[in-house]
């Protein structure tokens, strides 16, 4: 029984320690995981800030140090308007010669917003209503206004080259004269090249797939239009960011089936007041690095938990070896292994408080036990008590609990019982005691029997001393009537 108690103690300690360790380890794991996620988010915010700073810097540089390009475009446009006034038949113009003269590409956009004439023959026939609906609306407004307009950084759709455009309508509104000037060869762009910044960021962070700066139409600066078309999901997120001025994200799968998150951040230039003022920063990133970190934390968490569990088991075994027997003996009789008086009082008090039916208490006293000690000595007396304890325990099985109260006094507590069951147990105990006396060769022929007092109380009686007194009175009544019998109180 002591070993069983020790096992229960070890199991209890291990479960308790394991639960505590698991809770602490889980909290720590969650804290570390949250920190990794926060670091990943901070990394993304840092990249956003770097790209926005790069764009803001180059816009500021053009605003303060490159105003002569806009003035040059304005002067060239006015010169072309004078040519148009003298000869509105654009078909007869030598546009290639104008390109050489101005060092700018020349475009004529008709009332349908289609490029009808251009120094770049590949662009002739481009319909802005089809390719660039937003720009087409802007062109209509500018055509009606008739003023000179120039934008900031944009792209040449065929090549992706960073280009500056200017627009001014002819007095008869038949054409919009558009000039384009490449910015990529200029000193300012070379000194403040934001494309270099984005490429460096892509190389520095494994989680970053690509970074694009999208213009009003969703085309990436630096890439040809055919290579930078947005998928429907990306287009929706881009338009939402552009319209609402709020950061959005969309998760898609790439060609390899890997998850890619497209992160869209609005950019509003404080130095570009044309149609190119608003752009969107697109950051495509993956969570493979984050997932790898979280996986590592999870593996570390499992290893730590296993280590803690092993240490807990070892410590529990050591502690149980030290304290299990003293703890066990505090509530058990050292000779018979039955529960002792302390356990009896505690158990009975708990049963009386919780029981909803009748509680039965059987007080057992061995008749003439003193003669065994006198005839054979205390060693044989102890041996007989062990046999008696075994016999009593065997009669009740799991129906109740047996106790040794001291000397040759024993007790049985029956929960949710009745008179018939209690009397049956008493009869079985008397029979078992008689058989034990007969089986033990030294006590054969001795008048060793058992007297039993039974007290039954319902759920109205909650006092331990009261039921004990009743059983004790019944016990002495059975002794007074000749012993080797039982009596029921009341």
TrEMBL record:
<protein>
    <recommendedName>
        <fullName>GGDEF domain-containing protein</fullName>
    </recommendedName>
</protein>
<keyword id="KW-1133">Transmembrane helix</keyword>
<feature type="domain" description="GGDEF">
    <location>
        <begin position="357"/>
        <end position="490"/>
    </location>
</feature>
<keyword id="KW-0812">Transmembrane</keyword>
<dbReference type="InterPro" id="IPR050469">
    <property type="entry name" value="Diguanylate_Cyclase"/>
</dbReference>
<dbReference type="InterPro" id="IPR043128">
    <property type="entry name" value="Rev_trsase/Diguanyl_cyclase"/>
</dbReference>
<dbReference type="Pfam" id="PF00990">
    <property type="entry name" value="GGDEF"/>
</dbReference>
<dbReference type="GO" id="GO:0052621">
    <property type="term" value="F:diguanylate cyclase activity"/>
</dbReference>
<dbReference type="InterPro" id="IPR029787">
    <property type="entry name" value="Nucleotide_cyclase"/>
</dbReference>
<keyword id="KW-0472">Membrane</keyword>
<feature type="transmembrane region" description="Helical">
    <location>
        <begin position="301"/>
        <end position="319"/>
    </location>
</feature>
<dbReference type="InterPro" id="IPR000160">
    <property type="entry name" value="GGDEF_dom"/>
</dbReference>
């Amino acid at each position: 029984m002591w070993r069983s108690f020790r096992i229960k103690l070890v199991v209890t300690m291990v479960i308790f320690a394991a639960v505590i360790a698991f809770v602490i380890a889980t909290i720590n794991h969650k804290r570390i995981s949250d920190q990794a996620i926060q670091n990943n988010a901070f990394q993304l915010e840092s990249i956003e800030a770097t790209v926005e700073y790069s764009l803001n810097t180059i816009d500021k540089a053009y605003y303060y140090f490159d105003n002569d390009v806009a003035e040059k475009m304005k002067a060239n446009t006015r010169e072309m308007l004078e040519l148009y006034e003298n000869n509105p038949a654009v078909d007869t113009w030598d546009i290639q010669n104008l390109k050489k003269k101005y060092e700018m590409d020349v475009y004529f956009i008709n009332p349908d917003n289609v490029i009808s004439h251009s120094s770049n023959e590949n662009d002739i026939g481009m319909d802005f209503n089809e390719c660039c609906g937003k720009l087409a609306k802007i062109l209509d407004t500018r055509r009606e206004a008739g003023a000179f307009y120039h934008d900031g950084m944009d792209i040449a759709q065929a090549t992706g080259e960073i280009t500056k455009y200017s627009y001014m309508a002819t007095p008869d509104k038949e054409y919009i004269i558009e000039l384009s000037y490449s910015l990529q060869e200029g000193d300012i762009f070379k000194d403040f090249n934001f494309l270099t910044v984005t490429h460096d960021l892509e190389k520095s962070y494994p989680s970053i797939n690509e970074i694009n700066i999208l213009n009003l139409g969703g085309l990436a600066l630096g890439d040809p239009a055919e290579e930078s078309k947005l998928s429907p999901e990306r287009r929706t997120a881009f338009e939402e960011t552009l319209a609402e001025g709020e950061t959005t994200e969309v998760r898609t799968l790439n060609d390899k089936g890997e998850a890619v998150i497209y992160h869209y951040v609005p950019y509003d230039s404080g130095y570009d007041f044309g149609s190119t003022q608003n752009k969107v920063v697109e950051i495509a990133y993956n969570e493979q690095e984050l997932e790898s970190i979280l996986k590592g934390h999870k593996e570390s968490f499992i290893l730590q938990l296993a280590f803690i569990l092993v240490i807990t088991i070892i410590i529990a075994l050591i502690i149980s070896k030290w304290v299990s027997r003293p703890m066990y003996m505090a509530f058990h009789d050292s000779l018979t292994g039955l529960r002792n008086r302390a356990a009896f009082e505690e158990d009975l008090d708990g049963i009386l408080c919780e029981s909803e039916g009748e509680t039965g208490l059987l007080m057992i006293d061995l008749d003439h036990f003193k003669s065994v000690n006198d005839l054979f000595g205390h060693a044989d007396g102890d041996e007989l008590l062990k046999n008696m304890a075994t016999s009593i325990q065997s009669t009740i099985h799991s129906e109740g609990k047996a106790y040794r109260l001291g000397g040759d006094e024993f007790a049985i507590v029956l929960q949710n019982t009745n008179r018939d069951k209690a009397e049956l147990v008493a009869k079985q105990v008397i029979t078992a005691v008689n058989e034990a006396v007969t089986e033990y060769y030294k006590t054969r022929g001795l008048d060793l029997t058992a007297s039993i007092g039974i007290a039954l109380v319902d759920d109205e009686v909650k006092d331990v001393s009261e039921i004990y007194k009743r059983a004790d009175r019944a016990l002495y009544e059975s002794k007074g009537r000749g012993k080797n019998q039982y009596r029921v109180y009341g």
